[in-house]
Amino acid sequence: MAERKICVVTGTRADYGLLYWLMKEIESDPALRLQLIVTGAHLEPRFGHTVDVIEADGFAIDARVPIDLSDDSPQGITAATGRALSGIGAAVESLAPEIIVLLGDRYEILAAATAAMLQRIPIAHLHGGEVTEGALDDSMRHAITKMSQWHFAAAEPYRQRIIQMGEAPERVFTVGAPGLDHLVRTPLMGTDEIKAELNINPAHPYFLITHHPTTLGDEDATQEIIALLAALDCFPEHSLVFTGVNADAGHDTIAQTIHEYVLHNNKRARLFSSLGQRRYLSAMQNAAAVIGNSSSGILEAPSCNVPTVNIGLRQKGRLRAETILDCDAVTSDIQRAILQATDPAFMASRSNAILPYGKPGASNRIKEILKACDASGLRRKVFYDLPSTRTTP
Questions:
Q1: For residue 367, what pLDDT is reported?
Q2: pLDDT at position 380, please?
Q3: Where are the domains positioned within the chain?
Q4: What is the rounded CA–CA span in Å between residue 24 and residue 140?
Q5: Fewest CB atoms within 10 Å of the CB: 15, 91, 309, 378?
Q6: CATH number of this structure's domain 190-348
Q7: Nearest-CA neighbor of 131 among 354, 321, 317, 370?
Q8: Which DSSP letter does residue 148 get?
């Protein structure tokens, strides 16, 4: 029997980290053949050129699709999406996979889904059904869902939402969040080791900070990051570890403001365009708090038993553990949330907090389903009506 070719597309350090163990599962199964398309921020030096990390991890890259992210305006992102559609479309035609695997909700992933759909290649979609009301990603995620044949939801409410969108229940699976697999499969560093790795004061606690543009709404990106930095100034006893801004529209102003702040606070602040998955999760596991608006503060930080200060609207709508503190993007509110997060009584009172994204093991569960599923006859999709809305023809 021929190997089943499964193509994975990755465009950012974030989705690569979540896909890593699924890719390892596919790669190690003799019945499957991993194909890999790398695009987006991975190929840009200003975002850490993280394609080098992928290669260092031992993965063979079948196609590189540069899309030029030098212009962070809405029109610039629109043009980059067009380049992604054309380039990924050509790569998919050449590789001819049986299934294409996509994760999440970004514009380069929307382009990949469009290319696969137009070439009639079935799509397996991870992390569908979620809601992020403060980001354009919300609409793109749902659009990808409607182009996909298999759905791997991180929590049961998300599975129900995918079905509500007309997807057949027998092809919608609750598997948990694949990013949690790192917590049991990736050897993480202890406190002293990660502090030495990050070159921060070994005697001080530290915050791990990642803040991206809020791409929907009227929020001013400059004012948001200024408010966050002013709040951090109120905690001089903590070191600050910043990770790079993603490639959404409006990222330049945030990145430049953080860069200048770190230059003027170089005794306690560090900035990394990308830490890589092992260093990032090690930094998270040993942090006093995770601060910003990254999805990792929602998905992984609670499983590390680390409090999250989630700022603004970007992640509004996602399921939350009780270890997450939401606040407005104003200095006083951020400061209040950080004070609460760093109070030992806060985490002590949440020692039995429910983790909505399940337990590690999602990557193997997804791989086994992809290995066994029937990929024939799925190009013609039928809209699944909920029982209460069905009508007799």
A1: 98
A2: 75
A3: 4-176+361-385, 190-348
A4: 27
A5: 378
A6: 3.40.50.2000
A7: 317
A8: -
Q: How many residues does the chain have?
A: 393
Q: 3-class SS at 276? A: helix
Report how far residue 17's alpha carbon sits from residue 174's, in angstroms, rounded to the nearest whole number.
20
| Other beta carbons within 10 Å of 349 | 12
CA distances from 349 to 209, 334, 338, 346 (A): 24, 21, 16, 5
User: How many whole angstroms separate alpha carbon 186 and alpha carbon 325?
Assistant: 27
Residue 363 near residue 179, CB atoms below 8 Å: no
Helix, strand, coil percent values for the chain (each to nearest 5) = 45, 15, 40
Which positions of the chain have pLDDT values less than 50?
A: none
Record the pTM.
0.87
Same fold across 4-176+361-385 and 190-348: yes
- Residues 115/87, Cβ–Cβ less than 8 Å: no
- What is the CATH code of the structural domain delimited by 4-176+361-385? 3.40.50.2000
